[in-house]
User: Which sequence fits this backbone?
């Protein structure tokens, strides 16, 4: 693998490029969250219809990953990332001028192609380094890009109050243009096996599904991320309807999860290679579950303040920061010769499950329910993440750990 040189499309990408490309997809998830009530008013649509802008985006993320991954194995990481980021940029501009809520939701679905930054950054890292090193590098990439989703709801709240809901999408479009330019100038091809037909790449899916270890990492990732997606689906409603917060106010409270996520990803980047991906997964799931227990305990004890819900969410951020890089490294390492397909399929299962949980969280909440149904759902999902992580550990105990000896593994593992 050639040494990394910034702004040289003949070498592997600089970490900054992968951070920005990944952050574009994350920005589309939550920058506009404070504007959901205003969008509902603009289109004269019920809130639950407009809330589909979150779940449709996540669902599109999941479906598109099934295509992005194997396409990148067939045609290369660079070509596919450029194509899908460009599509996301065009869709973002379309959301600004959408004449009806249905056109707006269609634009949101196409905007989901921004997930290419996340999918292909994971595959690119696995092209370059071994599994435990990949977990550390993914952790640092995620830590860097977390600044965007961490501050996005806070910034989005002020954009809504000062300029209206379209302003968030203007900012997204500008960020997407920067991401596209960086990928064009800096991303060199890292896939050494651009060969075979697209059908051959799709044939990797049955092989991946046959791996119990792959399924275990996917389940761990899906449930760990599902806690956060449930929070995205229900958090704005709890903040505005139960606590009566203005957009900029609950944008501030959303910073707690982002700060925790930065801490968790920093710890992953620093310790994953030394500790191992399975231990990092266990630690992250336990921290997430602890956060949900603390929040539920505060509510049961009668502390009905926004901090009772949003302060413990910082532990959800730490837990996800510990779990997700290692689970992602495991997903793309089980069959490393098809890392793109593995990243796409694993990401599809993760994001698809998250989309369903986002909808479920919104459906459970009513003006009279308070935040307890949301916290109970998040606690239940965090327990499932622990169970999935223990299953991965069981597979490792009978089949051995993933082979860290080479960046690209040609042999199947259990």
Assistant:
């Amino acid at each position: 693998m050639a040494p990394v040189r910034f702004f040289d499309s003949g070498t592997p990408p600089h970490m900054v490029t992968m951070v920005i490309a990944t952050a574009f997809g994350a920005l589309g998830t939550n920058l506009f969250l404070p504007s959901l009530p205003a969008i509902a008013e603009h289109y004269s649509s019920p809130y639950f219809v407009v809330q589909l802008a979150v779940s449709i985006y996540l669902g599109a993320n999941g479906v598109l990953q099934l295509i992005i991954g194997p396409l990148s194995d067939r045609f290369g990481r660079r070509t596919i990332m450029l194509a899908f980021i460009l599509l996301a940029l065009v869709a973002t501009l379309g959301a600004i001028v959408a004449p009806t809520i249905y056109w707006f939701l269609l634009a949101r679905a196409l905007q989901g192609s921004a997930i290419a930054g996340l999918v292909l950054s994971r595959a690119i890292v696995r092209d370059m380094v071994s599994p435990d090193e990949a977990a550390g590098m993914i952790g640092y990439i995620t830590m860097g890009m977390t600044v965007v989703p961490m501050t996005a709801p806070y910034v989005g709240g002020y954009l809504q109050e000062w300029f209206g809901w379209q302003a968030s999408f203007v900012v997204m479009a500008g960020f997407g243009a920067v991401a596209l330019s960086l990928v064009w100038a800096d991303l060199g091809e890292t896939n050494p096996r651009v060969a075979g037909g697209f059908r051959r790449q799709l044939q990797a899916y049955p092989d991946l599904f046959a791996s119990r270890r792959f399924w275990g990492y996917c389940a761990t990732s899906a449930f760990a991320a599902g806690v956060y997606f449930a929070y995205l689906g229900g958090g704005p409603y709890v903040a505005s309807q139960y606590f009566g917060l203005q957009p900029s106010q609950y944008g501030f409270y959303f910073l707690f999860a982002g700060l925790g996520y930065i801490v968790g990803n920093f710890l992953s980047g620093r310790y994953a290679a030394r500790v191992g991906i399975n231990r990092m997964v266990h630690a992250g799931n336990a921290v997430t579950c602890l956060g949900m227990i603390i929040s539920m305990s505060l509510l049961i004890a009668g502390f009905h303040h926004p901090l009772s819900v949003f302060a413990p969410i910082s532990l959800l951020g730490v837990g996800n920061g510990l779990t997700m890089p290692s689970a992602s490294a495991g997903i793309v390492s089980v069959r490393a010769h098809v890392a793109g397909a593995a990243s796409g399929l694993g990401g599809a299962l993760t994001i698809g499950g998250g989309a369903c949980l986002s909808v479920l969280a919104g459906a459970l909440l009513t003006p009279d329910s308070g935040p307890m149904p949301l916290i109970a759902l998040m606690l239940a999902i965090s327990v499932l993440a622990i169970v999935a992580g223990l299953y991965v550990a069981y597979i490792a105990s009978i089949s051995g750990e993933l082979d860290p000896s080479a960046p690209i593994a040609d042999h199947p593992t259990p």
